[in-house]
Structures are given as structure tokens and as C-alpha cells.
Design goal:
- The longest helix of chain A is centred in the middle third of the chain and has 35 residues.
- By secondary structure, chain A is an all-alpha fold.
- Chain A is globular.
- Chain A has one domain.
- In chain B, about 40% of the residues lie in helices and about 30% in strands.
- Chain B has 11 helices and 14 strands.
- Chain B is elongated, with a radius of gyration of 25 Å.
- In chain B, about 40% of the residues are buried.
- Classes of the chains: A mainly alpha, B alpha/beta.
Chain lengths: ~325, ~300
């Protein structure tokens, strides 16, 4: 196999990404917001000495954590680097020029995926690194070995999660001819996975397990009954299972567990309600969250495999 | 006779029901400039794409430089270059950067690259705009950059798909001269496609006329027009001062003249063979003056159209 062709394309792709406005803007946005959340995390740790270093990623009580940022912006970052990778070259006529070079066809798609992955890895690793770098001098201590391991694993998870969206973006750019179509597909997917799914899950849960107010009036006493609690638990379970369609949700579950900050982020507070804040051991976290991690990895591989096959069979026709 | 460089046998490519290329048998010999001539949508581009391995034929076979287009397409891409129709460039890169990228994809060692790019830019006349972004390039400059890209791998055979489309006469001439030079100096086999007969006539030693994916004729332009000229009668256009109906009748009477018809003040004399001498003698005899007399030539386009009509 000619890896040389793939590496050349990867290098070009990476250079394009690093110099592109969309990458720089997204990177800057994530960096600023993450640093801010890390700073807020340190404030929280200062007043709660038991919280531990990892609280810089949980964003404490301020609602937006790094995990949350990735849940919300992750899809758009990955998709932004992939959505026009193939169809842009197709419409501008550079794809046929590329295909006339003595390279294997798959090195084009491999190179593009690789280039995007490196760009996303840089983004994730730099952001996490800078967050730690900001927090450590303020706190006066850094992560211990265990926490450092968690951070590394979390960074890897984040990279895989972002490359899932990259692979999906590449898929969109391969199946559509126009970038305007793939950008629409990307934005709808983003909105669906990060916002709409939560609303739909809530609606369905409400439909299946409606809350009956006895007598139609609000009765504070009713909230205390075990019956009511069970009802809420059932709703939460339904809601959670529906939301698991979204890789963003899976990432949130897995990421929070790896960081040991599980519970209470991203609109599913009910999950943590009633159960005391519990910090899972890393091994325990991996043991309970491996299906989520696996689902993201498999999703990424499947997206890329489909893209790969479609691209190899892509027929270059006269007039695009 | 030199070796065939490109050979297709019963090559077919169907897009669903549409037969873009239909049992095409084409041979291009080493060292020649061959023109593939045909109207839009006649299968020229599809043929090119198949030859470079960008699309897979439905049936039939083809070889380029002896390599099979299906099994050995990467080897073909090592010895053959193509300038696709509407070839694109990376707009935000300079001409030099574009060429550098293509060099890298062709595994040109880093040390050789710089000089090679410099030479190529000079050869195509882009040395002054080497560090200008391609987005500012004119159509002619783009096409010249495309030719430079084609030459990077020092190809044995180059395919140019509609290379002068949208270019001004000056640009067309430059591209044509470049192709001549490459053919002569490097012995490069050139296959070019066009829908303009004039262009093909200016450039190519041999021409293939393609229509609806089939090759109708392949020969030199001279032979192609000779074949038709035999069938066509000669016509002379006259403009006379003091022409009388008697004179017209007498011209009609000349042996070999089949008919005479008048349009406004012009007289068209159709004949089996050229009788211009007899006509002018007759005119002078009647005391009339010839203001204009010229054989009505069949334009190349007419020849082309006639071939296309014949194949219906």
C-alpha cells in the first residue's frame, strides 16, 4: 500500500484545517469557554476541599463543563472538519486531478480522515492541557497519578468522540454532491443529537408515563410518596434510553464516569437526584460504561467504513 | 509503424440506459497527436475517464502503454497524465504550492522539486505569477498551470480534455504550440478531445470522429475531407457587372455545369468539376465584368457535420 500518498494528503489536509477560519474560530471558542469553566472549577475546589482536581472538568455548579461543551459543540467541530472534504473537491474539479495521480484511491479518503483526526486531537489535547495548566497554579496542586490517568483516558475518549463526528461529516461529503446539502445535513444532525433528542425523549417519557396530578391541583405532599418517586424513576429511565441514540449523550455518560464526576449535567439531573454524589473508581467506571465507549468507537468505525466503500466506488462522471 | 500507445477494444460504458461509450475501437500510436472530435455528450470525456481509471468500463477492454485500464490503472497513472475538462486547482494556494502538492503525490524527491517546479513554470509561461494565489488566475493561466501539472510526472502520453475551451485566440494558440513542442521535443503522445474541428485540424495528425459513443471515422483530416469532396460538387460564387439572362443561359450550357442559381446579385454555379476558366471566358465574351469570383469552399465544420449526418 502506498502510505506516502495518504501521508501527503493528510499533511495538506492538516495544513488546510489549521489555517482555516472555521477551525481557528471553533478552537478559540472551546479554549476560552473551557478555560473559563476550569477557572470556575478551581473556585469550587477552593471552597470544597474534598472535591479533588477533577472538579475542574465538572464545571461545578456553573452548568457548563468541558464535557458539556463537548456534548454541545463536539458534533459541530467534527462535522465542520468533514462535511465538505470530498464534495468540495468534486465540485471544484480538484478531485479528478487528484485521481489522475499515481496514488491509490483509498489514500485520498484515508489521508483526509487522518488529517482531520490529527487536527481534532490537537484541539482536544491542547484544550485539556491548557485547562490543567490554568488550574494547577491557582490550586497549588496537580492531579495525582490516578487522576492523570483519568485525564488521559478522558482525552482519548474525547478524541474518538470527535472523530466519530468527523467520520460522519466525511460520509455526508461523500454521499452529497453539493456542500450546501451536506452542511444542512450536518447542522440538522448536530441540532438533533445535542438538543432535539432531549426534547423528544422528554415528550415520549411524558406520553408513556404521564404524571397525574390528583384533583388537578399541585400537591406538594404527593412528591414525597414512594409511588411518585418510582414514577419519576421510570420516566428518567425511558428518557435516558431514548437519549442514548445520540452519541453526544453516550459520550457524556462515559466521559463523566471516567472523570469521576458522574451526575448532574446536560439536562438529566433526575439521574443524579436522590442518589448521593458518588465518585466511581476508574476501573469501576470503565466496567460500567464500556458499552457507551464501545458504541462510540463502533459508530466511528462504521461511519468511516461506509465512507471508505462509497468513495472507492464513487463514479467520476463527465460534468462532475 | 510505431506501437499503439492507447488501444480500446469494444470499450463500452453505460450509465443506466445511456450508452456514453458504445463499443469504441480506437488506436492511438506512439508519438502522434490524435484528436478525438465529437459534439458535446458524444462520449469523449467518458472515454478519457475510463482510460485513466477514474471510471470502470461496463464492458470491453482498453490499454494505455500496454497496461490494462482495470487491473493496472495505477501503473497507467504513472506514465499517463490527464488534464480533465474543468480541471480544478486549490484556489487558496499559489501556483507553486499547487505544483508542489502534485509533485509530492508523484513522489518527486524534495531536492528535485524546487528546480522542477521552476522549470515547469517557465515552460508554461507562469514564472511571473508563481507566487500568486490561483484564485486570481485567468482562465488561460489556469489552463497553463494545468499543463504544468500534467508534465510533472514526465508522461509518455498526455490526455487533454477540451484543453482550449473558453480560451481566447491567443490562449488557444499558446496551448496548441505547447502541445506541439511537447510532442516534438519529448516525443510525447498526445490525445486531445475537442468539439471544434478547426482546432483539431490545426493540431492533430490524425482525427477520430466520435458520435453517441461510437467511432465513426479515424484518419487524417485531409483524407477525411477528400472522401467527402468526391461526393460533393464544386461550386463557384460569382458577382458580375452587366450580367444578362443570355449570359446566364450560356454559363448553364458549359459542359460540366449542372445548375446556376441567382441570389440577389450573386450567382452560384454548381458543376461536376472545376470550370472556372470556361466561365470567366464566357463572361468576358459577353462584355460583362467579373467583380468577384471565388470557389465556395466547404468549411471544415460542414465536413464534420456531414460525417455526423452520415452516421445517422
Amino acid at each position: 500500500m502506498s502510505m506516502a500518498g495518504a501521508l501527503t494528503i493528510c499533511r495538506k489536509e492538516l495544513a488546510d484545517h489549521l489555517g482555516s477560519r472555521r477551525y481557528i474560530v471553533l478552537f478559540a471558542l472551546i479554549l476560552v469557554l473551557s478555560t473559563l469553566s476550569a477557572y470556575q472549577g478551581t473556585e469550587y475546589i477552593k471552597s470544597n476541599p474534598n472535591a479533588g482536581f477533577m472538579a475542574i472538568f465538572s464545571g461545578a455548579r456553573f452548568g457548563f463543563s468541558f464535557t458539556y461543551l463537548m456534548v454541545f459543540f463536539g458534533p459541530i467541530i467534527g462535522l465542520a472538519l468533514g462535511f465538505d472534504a470530498i464534495n468540495k473537491e468534486r465540485t471544484s474539479g480538484t478531485l479528478s486531478v487528484l485521481l489522475c495521480q499515481p496514488i491509490y484511491r483509498d489514500s485520498i479518503i484515508n489521508g483526509k480522515f487522518l488529517g482531520g483526526t490529527v487536527a481534532l486531537s490537537l484541539l482536544a489535547a491542547c484544550t485539556i492541557g491548557i485547562m490543567c495548566g490554568v488550574a494547577m497554579p491557582i490550586l497549588g496542586f496537580g492531579p495525582g497519578f490516578n487522576d492523570a490517568l483519568r485525564i488521559v483516558l478522558f482525552a482519548l475518549l474525547t478524541i474518538v468522540y470527535l472523530t466519530f463526528w468527523l467520520a460522519l461529516g466525511l460520509l455526508f461529503s461523500t454521499v452529497t454532491k453539493k456542500t450546501s446539502t451536506s452542511i444542512l445535513l450536518s447542522i440538522s444532525t448536530w441540532l438533533f443529537c445535542s438538543i432535539v433528542i432531549t426534547i423528544i425523549a422528554a415528550l415520549i417519557a411524558n406520553f408513556i408515563v404521564p404524571i397525574q396530578m390528583p384533583g388537578g391541583t399541585f400537591n406538594p405532599g404527593a412528591q414525597q410518596t414512594s409511588e411518585y418517586r418510582e414514577l419519576m424513576q421510570r420516566r428518567a429511565t425511558i428518557q435516558m434510553n431514548i437519549q442514548r441514540i445520540s452519541p453526544a449523550y453516550l459520550y457524556n455518560e462515559a466521559g463523566s464516569s471516567i472523570l469521576g464526576t458522574a451526575g448532574g449535567m446536560f439536562g438529566f439531573g433526575e439521574l443524579g437526584r436522590g442518589s448521593p454524589f458518588q465518585r466511581l473508581e476508574l476501573a469501576q467506571a470503565l466496567a460500567t460504561r464500556w458499552p457507551q465507549i464501545l458504541a462510540i468507537v463502533v459508530g466511528m468505525i462504521v461511519c468511516f467504513a461506509i465512507t471508505y466503500m462509497l468513495f472507492l466506488r464513487l463514479e467520476i462522471r463527465p460534468e462532475g | 509503424m510505431s506501437q499503439p500507445m492507447i488501444q480500446t477494444k469494444e470499450l463500452s460504458k453505460y450509465y443506466g440506459e445511456i450508452k456514453a461509450v458504445d463499443r469504441l475501437n480506437l488506436t492511438v500510436y506512439e508519438g502522434e497527436i490524435f484528436g478525438l472530435l465529437g459534439p458535446n455528450g458524444s462520449g469523449k470525456t467518458t472515454t478519457f475517464l475510463t482510460l485513466m481509471g477514474l471510471t470502470v468500463p461496463t464492458s470491453g477492454t482498453a490499454t494505455v502503454g500496454g497496461y490494462d485500464v482495470i487491473k493496472e490503472s495505477r501503473k497507467i497513472r504513472k506514465i499517463a497524465s490527464m488534464l480533465p475538462e474543468g480541471a480544478g486547482y486549490y484556489e487558496d494556494l499559489t501556483a507553486r504550492q499547487n505544483l508542489n502538492y502534485i509533485c509530492q503525490l508523484n513522489d518527486i524527491p524534495k531536492l528535485e522539486r524546487e528546480k522542477m517546479i521552476k522549470d515547469l513554470l517557465e515552460a508554461v509561461g507562469l514564472a511571473d505569477s508563481a507566487d500568486m494565489k490561483v484564485e486570481k488566475f485567468s482562465r488561460g493561466m489556469r489552463q497553463r498551470l494545468g499543463i504544468a501539472e500534467v508534465l510533472i510526472k514526465k508522461p509518455k502520453v498526455a490526455l487533454f480534455d477540451e484543453p482550449t475551451i473558453g480560451l481566447d485566440p491567443q490562449g488557444t494558440k499558446e496551448i496548441r504550440e505547447m502541445m506541439f513542442r511537447l510532442n516534438k521535443e519529448q516525443g510525447m503522445t498526445v490525445l486531445l478531445s475537442s468539439h471544434l474541428l478547426y482546432e483539431v485540424q490545426q493540431t492533430c495528425q490524425r482525427v477520430g470522429i466520435i458520435r453517441k459513443g461510437k467511432l465513426i471515422a479515424a484518419d487524417t483530416i485531409e483524407n477525411l475531407s477528400k472522401k467527402l469532396a468526391d461526393k460533393w460538387k464544386v461550386t463557384v460564387e460569382l458577382e458580375l457587372l452587366g450580367a444578362s439572362s443570355e449570359l446566364i443561359r450560356e454559363i448553364e450550357g458549359i459542359k460540366g455545369v449542372t445548375s446556376v442559381n441567382q441570389e440577389n446579385n450573386k450567382i452560384f454555379v454548381h458543376m461536376e468539376t472545376d470550370k472556372s476558366k470556361e466561365i470567366s471566358e464566357t463572361v468576358t465574351k459577353h462584355g460583362a465584368t467579373i467583380l468577384l469570383m471565388k470557389p465556395k469552399e466547404h468549411s471544415l465544420d460542414e465536413i464534420f457535420l456531414e460525417y455526423l449526418k452520415e452516421s445517422d
